[in-house]
């Protein structure tokens, strides 16, 4: 406890799923939180995204930890709006020490138009870049940036593209974004190392959140069925992992995020940490 006492952490995609879990775990360790989420749907992404009520619930959970929280409804694709919200929150909370660039979408299906590629890439990579670049001027020695990647970044791009599988343009955009996260975090880690600001990425496999549990994703895993149920998909979810599990839990990723945010990892930078139950090993990483 209190590994993050006195620190302020920005978390994007904080209204639910991994983002909420990261925000709450960071708060449990003593951090005040800037919680950001779009709280609206994106047309090419066919499963519902978080709501303002979800973000309010995240704020309540943070306050239960005894920490301060500032929330903002912002699209990470809008750098100017993100900067304005961040500057305002920092003025209220007194600084910034940790950045968790987590916001993401994963549109699935060959029927989705090319817009799915654009939206997935813009949220999952451009949104990461926007989040970090508006934050860097506020970070000083000891600052830590953690980016949510994915084992999807290990999949050959041709296997994610339209015609190469059920993922479609959105899956292709998602995979390209996650590939670029790896090189981007390494390059930025080298750039920021002289300033003692650390940049790391965490790459999950399936995570037990709404991004996994939706009909478009079930169809990706069960293309043999027109309308697969959760139970249908759960039969094949374990195929990805080397360990016998269909998914990891959000808190499994949060434990890694807390470590990378804390001074316990003060000399850890440029790392690609796979919390994936051995999925990367199966994929030949």
UniProtKB/TrEMBL annotation:
CDD domains: SDR_c. It holds the Pfam family adh_short_C2. Keywords: NAD, Oxidoreductase. SUPFAM superfamilies: NAD(P)-binding Rossmann-fold domains. It comes from the Bacteria. One of its GO terms (molecular function) is oxidoreductase activity, acting on NAD(P)H, oxygen as acceptor. The keyword Oxidoreductase applies. Belongs to the short-chain dehydrogenases/reductases (SDR) family. This is 3-ketoacyl-ACP reductase. It comes from Mycolicibacterium rhodesiae (strain NBB3) (Mycobacterium rhodesiae).
